[in-house]
Amino acid sequence: MGAVALFLILRLVFLTGRAASTLAPENAPLTHLRRAGERVFEVFVRPPRTVQEPWISPGCTAVYLLKRHPERFTVWTGRFAEVPHHLPRTAPGGRASCILECVEWIQAIILGFVQGLTEFLPISSSAHLNIVGQILPERADPGAAFTAITQLGTETAVLIFFWRDIVRILKSWFGSLTGRVPRNDPDARMGWLIIIGSLPIGVLGLLLEDYIDTQFRSLWIVATMLIVFAVFLGLADRFGREQRELKDLTFRHGLLYGCAQALALIPGVSRSGGTITAGLFMGYTREAAARYSFLLAMPAVFMSGLYKTFKVVTGEEATGFYGIPSTIVATLVAFVVGYLMIGWFLKYVSSKSYGIFIWYRIALGILIFVGLGTGVLNATSSAF
């Protein structure tokens, strides 16, 4: 009931903010666009649009694209702007801007909480950000850039939680390069295994970046992956032998772990879900599979997050409805919640099965299909 009440309050505030701003005429000339506090974004548009073509987007009164690059456009949202048609009119006051900014910060905090809560569970954090983003007043997927940046918060939590293990692995790995540590040292081997396991997702992430940012985020794909990989996780949890520990990890198994992690480029698969499923199928214990999943994710997530952060800072990409300050706050919230979730999850899987997550994935996938079928959810919705 509390969540429903919060949603209704946010929705009321958001609608009030939209009513307070003036809707720009759809065919108004671009030269009359007046900046009145709106943010400026740069996005990649497929297919390229004409210079003066209006683009109406959920949560925006109007959006105009200004050509700056063969494939990149500057986007001015009409949320805080007026386009005088014949006679000049007064620009919107600060009230609408303040209300929308308040909604932005509240939504960012909620999404940061969701990211921290779901990142380490085998239920796909990116899928949950997409779904929750559509339930919030903005009613839009926060996008791949926002998701990747907030994941920096949860991976920083992993860095701190496993600090001693990581320092020990790094020392042994560097020592093995200079000959001070034997190459067959368990920690040195773990360093190489993490590097090898990170290669598949690194290569495929760069090759498939456009699909990851667009087509792969369709809720039809998300719902399908949630259900399909719930079945795989159930089979692995039921029939996995659970005899191997991390000391038994081989280079072949490390590469297979990495290929399973690469599947998480598709929202709905889940990075932890994919690697844990692979580990259970290969005979590793639940706790060993989970611990290696945490360590293996660090290089890929940090590289992805920093890469997206660079693109946002340089203007090549945007975090949708969310500005840089609110995205930072979401990342900090994700860090705090994620840190608390790591200890709980490791303790949980050491004594219990993944059954609750399996049934949750199936139920969520079915609910998404129902939402798509009834029009409650949009298959592809972005903040632009």
Task: Describe what this molecule looks like in 3D.
With 384 residues, the chain is mostly helical. Helices cover 61% and strands 4% of the residues. A 3-stranded antiparallel sheet has the order 1-3-2, with no helix packed on it. Strand 2 and strand 3 form a beta hairpin. The longest helix is centred in the last third of the chain and has 28 residues, at 286-313.
In short:
The chain is mostly helical. The chain has 13 helices and three strands.
Order of strands across the widest beta sheet? 1-3-2
**Biggest sheet, open or closed, and with what strands and sense?**
3 strands, antiparallel
Structural class: mainly alpha
As a percent range, the share of strand residues is under 5%
What's the β-strand tally?
3
Helix content: 55-70%
Query: Which regions are unreliable across 5 or more consecutive residues at pLDDT < 50?
Result: 1-99
**What number is the mean pLDDT?**
77
Number of helices: 13
Instruction: Give the SSE string.
Output: HEEEHHHHHHHHHHHH
What is the global morphology?
Answer: globular
Measured between the Cα atoms of the first and last residue, the distance is 30 Å
Keywords:
384 residues; mainly alpha; 13 helices; globular
